[in-house]
Please model this.
Amino acid sequence: MEDVLIKGGRIVTAVDDYVADVLIKNGQIEAIARHIPAESAIVHNAAGLLIIPGGVDVHTHMEFPLGDAVTCDTFETGTRSAAFGGTTTIIDFALQQRGESPKQALDRRMAVAEPKACVDYSFHIILTDITPDALAELPDLIDRDGISSFKMFMAYPGVLMVDDAGIFKAMRKVGTQGGMINIHAENGSVIQVLIEEALAQGNTSPKFHALTRPRIMEAEASHRAIRLAELAEVPVYLVHLSAKEALEEVVEARDRGISAFAETCPHYLFLGIEEYDRPDFEPAKFVMTPPLRDHDCQEALWRGLKFDDLQIVSTDHCPFCFNENPYGIYQSKQLGHDNFERIPNGAPGVEFRLPLMFDGGVGMGRISLNRFVQLTATAPAKMFGLFPRKGTIAVGSDADLVLFDPLKVHTLSASTHHSNADYTLYEGRKVTGKVEKVFLRGNLVVDGDTWLGHPGNGAFQKRSASGRV
Ligand code: URP
Ligand code: ZN
Ligand code: ZN
Model:
């Protein structure tokens, strides 16, 4: 592999901000200095551009089965879309089916991802069947296989939901090994009552997805998850936190010194409940779980990001097409045309996390440039055992680098994104700040609009058990 030299860019990490050259050798950062001679290296001029660490998105669902449907991005299309958005590592999910062991779930998922992934990847294992045998496998998964985080659902009864006893048992086991527990925190049983009541009254439209998932049921489950984790002595990470009241639970716990962490997602920061008032079936595009919230939640989330009550912005990229079959896909949002409960939950987003957070976060003065990097790369890498290989720009780190033009204005659109999804939540939104070049372990994979990556070039990343942050 030839050496690569990136010249004269503004290097921005979670803590640094300076202009220098970066030399890449064998996929890693070899040197950073004010002036490095080109010698035989391939040179990229980065004058006027930011050099930021490749994004780390710890919440994606590529070709993922959810209820009656499978998400519409394969590992190939979804990771290509991630790369165009400046994300060079994803942590996706391996779903333990009932009767299956967690290790079998991991092996199955690895076999799907390995030939297709275009960026580096790992998995959280979703535990659904907490048997003694499953619990007994967890230490090896953490220590031998490099899977240091496990997710459980307090929602989706009968499908993914685990009861409190199961959650507690898994938490205690993972805690003894220094792993991390991820929780989808919503009170699924109560929400199910509300769903059934709504449907019985003939309220079948997408808006009722939001109306049957109240904020305080997210807060209640968040509180319960944190208290269970406190007893089990394990760090807990609440995924896709959306409600102000849930954030208050995290803040309260952190103030008591509990290892409670949380992510939010761009859609909760930039979009609100009014999207469900769009005409016809359009609101189905915004059916994700938890649903979009009121604007007071948005303000609280931005404040949480600023003051580190929230540590990470991930996408929960969980794409379903709006219409049937543009790519041979028969599992679109239309499945729920007559019943909101059958609308596949989730939305695309992996490609737009960096531009949105730069434009709406840094550009609007809500977060600093360093904090932008911390939220999208450094903190996810640290919290999930990938740092310092990933998430920063330092000698010896993988050369996962994004050359980012902070001044370029562009328009987000499904007509130009690289996901298989036939829509985006942000259609027509103008943003300032664009990914120009992306390097994955020193290989140029994105050059403007040109794709230079290859399926199978993404590498599985073993993660250390750095759950105790
Ligand atoms: O709507 C969502 N978020 N779908 C993905 C599954 C989940 O709950 O993360
Ligand atoms: Zn979830
Ligand atoms: Zn998700």
